[in-house]
Amino acid sequence: MSKQNNTNLKRVIVDFKKLTPEVLKLLVERYPDGYDDRNIITFKNSQGERVEAVEVLTEDTKYLVKISAKLEYTMENYDEDDYEDFEDDDPDAILEPDPEAMEEEEDDED
């Protein structure tokens, strides 16, 4: 998709709580090895707060997904089969990661 077409896209800011299987899959496909500082877009939201997000595009929508430890952990542990019983647009499909599991993974990296 060319940059010129991006101006006509609907822009949607997605928080982890609103993340759907469809958007998670797009993220994992676009950033198979995870995202890094070069991929992060910083902007101010309507309340003037600084937001950091990563971008994924569909035919008609630009998703800006707010980055967080939960997002990173969920992307790293993504398995498409986990979401086969859910609709692609169901935000209830993405469960909050277990904080203990996130800590264990951090400990394993050290």
Give structural notes.
- It is a single chain.
- The protein is α+β, with helices and mostly antiparallel strands.
- The protein has one domain (3-104).
- The chain is built from three helices and four strands.
- The chain has helices at residues 21-30, 69-76, 99-109, and strands at 10-14, 40-44, 50-57, 61-66.
- It has a four-stranded mixed sheet.
- A hairpin with a 5-residue loop joins strand 2 (40-44) and strand 3 (50-57).
- It is globular, with a radius of gyration of 15 Å.
Describe what is shown at a glance.
By secondary structure, the chain is an alpha+beta fold.
Rg estimate, integer Å: 15 Å
- What percent of the residues sit in helical stretches (DSSP H or I)? 25-40%
The tally of structural domains comes to 1
Strand content: 15-25%
Q: Span between N and C termini?
A: 39 Å
In terms of structural class, how would the helical and strand content be classed? alpha+beta
Order of helices and strands: EHEEEHH
Region (Disordered): 78-110
Organism: Pricia antarctica
Protein name: DNA primase
List the helices and strands and how they pair.
Blueprint: E1 10-14, H1 21-30, E2 40-44, E3 50-57, E4 61-66, H2 69-76, H3 99-109
Parallel strand pairs: 1-4
Antiparallel strand pairs: 2-3, 3-4
Question: What labels would you give this structure?
Answer:
110 residues; 3 helices; globular
